[in-house]
Design brief:
The protein is an alpha/beta fold. The chain folds into two domains: 134 residues, 3-Layer(aba) Sandwich (Rossmann fold), CATH 3.40.50.1000; 82 residues, DNA polymerase, domain 1, CATH 1.10.150.240. The protein is 49% helix and 11% strand. The chain has ten helices and six strands, in the order βαααααβαβααβαββα. A six-stranded parallel sheet has the order 3-2-1-4-5-6. It is elongated. The termini are close together. This is HAD superfamily (Subfamily IA) hydrolase, TIGR02254. It comes from Allomuricauda ruestringensis (strain DSM 13258 / CIP 107369 / LMG 19739 / B1) (Muricauda ruestringensis). GO terms for molecular function: 5'-nucleotidase activity. Keywords: Hydrolase.
Amino acid sequence: MFDYEVTDIFFDLDHTLWDFEKNSALTFAKILVDNKVKVDLDGFLEVYAPINMQMWALYRENGISQSELRYQRLKRTFDALHMHVSDEVINVLANDYIAHLSSFTHLLPNTVETLEYLFPRYKLHIITNGFQEVQARKLKGSGINHYFQKIIDSEMAGVKKPNRYIFELALDMAQVEPQNSLMVGDNLEADILGAKAMGMQVLHYNFHKDSNHGECTMIDDLIEIKNIL
């Protein structure tokens, strides 16, 4: 399947292991009610999801700051819904969202089963563009932190995937050569193309149901990794 022996597997976290969509929806269900913002949750999430993806794309490209990401994704959602929500309330929601997001702990299907299979056979690590404190709480809260030897995040690296340096840092920390490493992630640009450019082997977890791109093997369920390695 792969050209070289795989000794180390690097996972993305959100949308790859940790069920970001479900946990985010539960967080909004709580904080919108807590802050007395009256909005249909399903309608809010339908508008918010693509805006959040756009804001994260800008953030990866250093087009906006962390604070702008947190504010603008909410501001633009309420504007699109033609709702007047004050900056004060938006900032409270932005802070509450980060504070409560990691308290929800749903994982994507077969995450634990896959990690249980891989753990005795490979060295496992995380490379994430998320914020250090939040990602650490997600891993601990969902009970999977003990599977991973090294956790590399964009705050630690000072750059975000697909920047070459975050992969270089991860490989250096894990003390492994690129060709003996496998990156598993959901984002074609950040995870797959970024790692591939570094000489790492790659596997695309097709969470977003993307069309076949020919860059690497795509899987629809994490458990498929058992039959590939």
